[in-house]
Amino acid sequence: MQAKSATNLKVIDVSHHQNDRGKIDWAKVKTDGVAGVFVKATEGGSGHDKQFSSNAQGASSAGLKVGFYHYAHPELNDAGKEAANFANAISGCAADFPHVLDVEGEAATVPGEQLTAWCVEWLETVEKLTGRPAMLYTGASFAKSNLRQPLGKWPLWIAHYDTDRPMANDTWSEWAVFQYTSEGTVAGIVGNVDVNAMEKAFFDNFAGTPADSGSTDEDSVKIVVNDKLAARGRLIDGHAYLPVRELAEALGVPVEWNASEAKPYVAGKSVTAFKLIGGSAYIGVRAAAELLGGQASFDGQTEKVYFYR
């Protein structure tokens, strides 16, 4: 496991517990050097965090990058039920970071191999249900004692306090996010809050601003699929790019994110030439047509892409 470094970005995680102590002032949070926030969405098979919508919207409106997490109870429920609870709760909410499975506490009562299989099923199911990548949060000691391969193919968010380098384990060689204290102080939040270091490469990969990718500031290109407005894409270096998930859904073909290969699959075919912007995969017009066997054209004057299949 690597140690914290000066290039890491400051990220926090919150749930209703922070709101219970006082309303969060997200504008002040941003001015305190916070780059992003993970917001608790669900717990177990049916629990919903009562401040999820408020926290997610408030953080995003303040210009923070956001991600959502689920607190797991594998000792009580099957993975499919908990994955569905999470996917349903976040439906319609835009996330920048991968969706997070939080496994700790009483989950340790489940034998290691069984627990590992449970986590794999949750992660794979959420990726299929949402079309977005996932990752796993856990404590350093918990990871070492309870979690096995093949979980190592998903990014790790690890917790270990009072140290600059988290404890090593046999499943992951590095972390993407490191929660190094639960007693941090951040402007705009009453009381203590978890503070994390996020690797810059991870942040840039999933939550880099459109300008970082040479793209326009927003999805301004209209995507017309079989004569129906289906989605919006964007211009990147003068070329039109389409959002992979929305294009696939408009065509009625399956789409999923393969975490081990770090790329999307559409209609069972791997998408190799894509750009990841804000956690969403985009594909060029010509590449999309070749991949899916359709016909596509871009009208630069009206900024519309016409796709037929």
From TrEMBL:
InterPro entries: GH, Glyco_hydro_25, Glyco_hydro_fam25_subgr. The keyword Transport does not apply. Coiled coil: none annotated. Keywords: Glycosidase, Hydrolase. SUPFAM superfamilies: (Trans)glycosidases. One of its GO terms (molecular function) is hydrolase activity. Belongs to the glycosyl hydrolase 25 family. This is Glycoside hydrolase.
